[in-house]
């Protein structure tokens, strides 16, 4: 292809030359921005989770009917799994890291705090949880068997003690010791959940219980709710929220 005639034609029209230059610059800016976002995601995904990922897996157990005995079912299943050859340990759990699902809560440092200090994922385990996740306890102590209670879908109470990651401890108590300190979960009395209409009656295999309806609220800088997604699914949801947030400015 002859380049010289093209260049000569462009030189006769400075406006066309400027527009082409702007198009090239805009394209490069978009590509660079996309590459930057991708590199950030790759870096985040490559961070060590702190657990033995290759040897850890989760088995789902679902009970049918209102007479299903969660506590005894857990005890029987765990005893069977722990007795299998090659099993280091087993624990009841609600999720595993990087499984595209789970439970998170805002963390406050004082009762009635308006803006949360940070957010954290929650993992419900028993005294075998540390070994089952392949983790190492750096400070404090593990849970005791007598402290473990069964938490089902209808439970509204919280345990008196928790084990947190070093990263969360450093964020909540920078330069200090987190052992024995107190922190607060957001909205423990469900005031905010009720005001948004997400603390609702739910059903699962014939059982009724109160629980959180998974919803997303897009709130602008003035505190006005711009859009609401009810009963959301994980797949594709973040992209939909991002698109709405971008279009609303």
Task: Describe the structure using short key phrases.
single chain, 249 residues, alpha+beta, 2 domains, two-stranded antiparallel sheet, elongated
What would you say this structure looks like, in words?
The protein contains seven helices and seven strands. The protein has 249 residues and is α+β, with helices and mostly antiparallel strands. It has two domains: 4-45; 70-213, no CATH class. It has a three-stranded antiparallel sheet with strand order 2-1-3, covered by helices on one side. A two-stranded antiparallel ribbon has the order 4-5. β6 and β7 (225-229) form a beta hairpin. The longest helix is centred in the first third of the chain and has 32 residues, at 14-45. The mean pLDDT is 82.
Q: Provide the β-strand percentage band.
A: 5-15%
Q: Strand sequence of the main sheet, in spatial order?
A: 2-1-3
How many alpha or pi helices? 7
Chain-averaged pLDDT? 82
Q: For the report, how would you describe the main beta sheet?
A: 3 strands, antiparallel
Which structural class fits the helix and strand makeup?
alpha+beta
* Number of separate structural domains: 2
The number of distinct β-strands equals 7
Distance between the termini: 44 Å
Instruction: Enumerate the spans where pLDDT stays under 50 for 5 or more consecutive residues.
Output: none
Radius of gyration, taken over Cα atoms and rounded to an integer in Å: 26 Å
Shape: elongated
Task: Summarize the amount of helix as a percent range.
Answer: 25-40%
Order of helices and strands: HHHEEHHEHEEEEH
């Amino acid at each position: 292809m002859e380049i010289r005639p093209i260049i000569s034609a462009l030189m006769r029209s400075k406006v066309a030359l400027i527009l082409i230059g702007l198009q090239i610059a805009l394209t490069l800016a978009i590509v660079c921005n996309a590459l930057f976002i991708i590199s950030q995601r790759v870096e985040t995904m490559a961070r060590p989770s702190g657990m033995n990922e290759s040897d850890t897996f989760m088995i789902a157990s679902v009970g049918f009917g209102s007479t299903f005995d969660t506590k005894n079912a857990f005890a029987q299943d765990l005893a069977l799994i722990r007795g299998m050859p090659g099993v280091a340990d087993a624990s009841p759990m609600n999720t595993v890291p990087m499984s595209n699902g789970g439970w998170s809560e805002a963390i406050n440092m004082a009762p009635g705090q308006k803006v949360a200090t940070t957010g954290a994922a929650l993992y419900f385990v028993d005294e075998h949880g540390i070994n089952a996740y392949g983790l190492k306890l750096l400070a404090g102590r593990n849970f005791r068997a007598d402290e473990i209670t069964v938490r089902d879908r209808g439970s509204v109470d919280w345990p008196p003690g928790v084990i947190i990651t070093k990263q969360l401890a450093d964020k909540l108590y920078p330069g200090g010791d987190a052992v024995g300190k107190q922190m607060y979960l957001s909205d423990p009395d469900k005031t905010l959940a009720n005001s948004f209409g997400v603390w609702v009656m739910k059903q699962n295999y014939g059982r009724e219980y109160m629980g959180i309806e998974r919803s997303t609220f897009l709130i602008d800088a003035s505190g006005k709710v711009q859009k609401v997604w009810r009963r959301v699914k994980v797949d594709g949801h973040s992209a939909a929220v991002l698109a709405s947030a971008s279009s609303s400015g």
